[in-house]
Amino acid sequence: MKFNIRIWIVAAVLLASFPSCKKYLDVVPDNVATVDYAFRNRNEAENYLFTCYATMQKSIFYAWSDPAFTTGGELLHPFPVENNRDMGFRMLRSGNNVLSVELDFWSGNNAGVNLYQAIRRCNIFLENVDKPVDLTANERARWTAEAKFLKAYYHYWLVRMYGPVAVIRKNLPVNASIDEVRVKREHVDTVFNYVVQLLDEAAAGLPRIITSEASELGRVTRSAALSVKAEALAWQASPLFNGNPDYLNFSSKENKPLFSTTADPHKWVLAAEACKQAIEEAESVGRKLYPFVPPANLTGLSDSTIHLLAFQGAVTHLFNDEVIWGANPVNADWQYICIPKMAVESQTNDVIWGSLSAPLAIAEMFYTNNGVPINEDKTWDYGNRYVPRASDEAHRYYIRNGYQTAGLNMNREVRFYASLGFDGSNWFGNGTLDDDNQQYIQGKMKQISGAAMIVKTNSTGYWPKKLVPYQSEFLARSLPVPFAVPRIRLAALYLLYAEALNETGNRTEALTWINKVRERAQLKTVEEAWSMYSNNPGKFNSKEGLRQIIHQERRIELAFESQSGWDLRRWKEMKDYLAKPMQGWSVYEETVAGYYQPRTIIMPVYNTREYLWPISDADLTINPNLVQTPLW
């Protein structure tokens, strides 16, 4: 028993931050169960497995802790907010710093969580899963695979943030030397290769489907492992990590390079193969693009609303057939910051903030109803997009008929209306399921949805409507419908496959997979849309042009899903995106003419060094074997 306790303590050495390397060998944590007790039977072992899941489900899958959600530039939030929940949003205004790293997932500070502790728990599980005598062989194989998946995912999260990181293949032995405790960063390809190796091992032992939905939703499947593998290989192949000249001199203390100096195009071949494998597995177990089938209580819906709910439902319909992997369902209490007040009875509900806003640039990112960018559509009045005009009968299911709104909000694709709420826009749901009498937003100052106190003000005039299920009600009382934002859904995998195919020179097949996603969005194929409506009709015929199309398609399809923030980083496009002021409408104005004037909300702070997180100065002092991320 004493030996097991010592293993637990020494394993923690790697991850704890103490003032000296000698001191933490003498620390005995209070109230720590022994490893023998934790694995004395099947029930206790399963509980321990759930602790391995806990870091992901309760921390890194929580929107406020996700750097892609809060620092991706898709959303803004007024500050301050309690409990550091606006940490990532503050980073857009001030950047990061090495004295107190924000969203620190290396050592677990400032709204981050220590992922090395999570990895340690996975290792402890893998080292002891053979102990419970009442665990069946099939259960042991599956649980081992789940722990390997989680261990891989925590390393994957770290490498995306920090680049070269310490790989923890197993916990330290009791007689580990001081130098062994002082871990080192490893070559970025070594990290990715280890992640892929673990995911391959995990996939072999994971179930293909979840059969006990009541008790196992959120647990991983073979499709999840293969999909994360495809993602990881796409990251390894992308410009941030594949021959990035910014990290040419990124080396260890022993002067060993931590980045490759030249790009390797074969990495995209591996990513394409992995995407294909993941798609085939997902489709073979019934994954498909989500179609909205109206339930019995919804009759007489217009095609416009059905198409809108098909796109929204892919995200908010809990564990639907498009979701390959998602977090456990939660009450999604942050829905209250996504929805504006639209009804008289909601005025007394102080829970409704409606303060999470999308910048004007995000509204401009979506296509026209012809399926091409607004600045390319020959038939769309780009020059007068900020000029207000009355909505008409053609928009009656998306915009209040006759309401004065910006031209920017008219003649847009269905994903625009499904993703964003804005002044004059209809909002299907929120207690009103009458397609012909929807609630609508009145967003100007002193109107029912307009600016209030600073923390309850939508700064830009655009609300992330996509993140509120139509069944949720925020009226006199709040009745949010639980859902979990998918971490991987089939549409995302289709577009990732298209990206990898294009990068390997297979543009024809890449177009097939993009068009599958566009079809659900009621858009013409890329070939038809660009040929008929774009002022750059041959754009899709070159690798570079199709790359731009794919990148924009992913940003539109996956907006507000904690995806675009990661994509912009791996593409090395975040710096360009955040080089411009983040703007919105003049929400403190009462008149139509005054409201529809763009105003700058913030000027983001972002430069090349922000692509990778720094390690805190304190951690560098504790462990002299570590090197700082370049440019910090």
UniProtKB/TrEMBL annotation:
Compartment(s) of residence: Cell outer membrane
Keywords for this protein: Cell outer membrane, Membrane, Signal
Sequence ranges assigned to domain SusD-like N-terminal in this UniProt record: 114-228
Domain RagB/SusD per the UniProt entry, residue ranges: 322-632
Major location (coarse): membrane
One Pfam family named in its UniProt record: SusD_RagB
Entry superkingdom: Bacteria
Signal peptide: 1-22
Matching InterPro entries: SusD-like_N, SusD_RagB_dom, TPR-like_helical_dom_sf
Family: Belongs to the SusD family.
Identification of the protein by name: RagB/SusD family nutrient uptake outer membrane protein
Organism: Chitinophaga pollutisoli
